[in-house]
């Protein structure tokens, strides 16, 4: 009784491991990625804006905590919501 051919048995005939085919595959995949370059740029821009706003919020909170809890300036704390 013969067994059916499996994928591993036929994989030895493939030339996918050669440098030429790897470079061709890389160029093809790079072409797909370059098509979405504007979206990638927009994502990077959004991450930079988020990082800047997160840092700015930490700086503002430092001032609130220093004035309110360290210096205990009641007048500054009353003006804080405005």
Provide a descriptive summary of the structure in words.
This protein has 82 residues and is mostly helical. Helices cover 74% and strands 0% of the residues. The chain contains 4 helices and no strands. The longest helix has 34 residues. It is rod-shaped. The model has no long low-confidence stretch (mean pLDDT 80).
Mean pLDDT: 80
For the largest beta-sheet, the strand count, sense and barrel status come to: none
Q: Give the H and E element order.
A: HHHH
Q: What is the helix fraction of residues, given as a range?
A: over 70%
- The global form is rod-shaped
The strand count comes to 0
Distance between the termini: 87 Å
DSSP strand content? under 5%
As residue ranges, the low-confidence spans are none
Tell me the structural class. mainly alpha
Estimated radius of gyration? 30 Å
What is the count of helical runs?
Answer: 4
Quick recap of the structure?
The protein has four helices and no strands. The chain has helices at residues 7-10, 19-35, 37-70, 74-79.
Key words describing this protein structure:
mainly alpha; 82 residues; 4 helices
Strands, helices and their partners?
Layout: H1 7-10, H2 19-35, H3 37-70, H4 74-79
């Amino acid at each position: 009784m013969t067994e059916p051919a499996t994928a591993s048995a036929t994989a030895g005939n493939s030339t996918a491991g050669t440098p030429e085919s790897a470079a061709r595959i890389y160029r093809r995949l790079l072409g797909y990625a370059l098509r979405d370059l504007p979206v990638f740029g927009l994502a990077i821009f959004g991450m930079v804006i988020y990082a800047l706003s997160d840092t700015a919020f930490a700086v503002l909170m430092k001032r609130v905590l220093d004035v309110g809890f360290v210096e205990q300036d009641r007048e500054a704390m009353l003006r804080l919501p405005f």
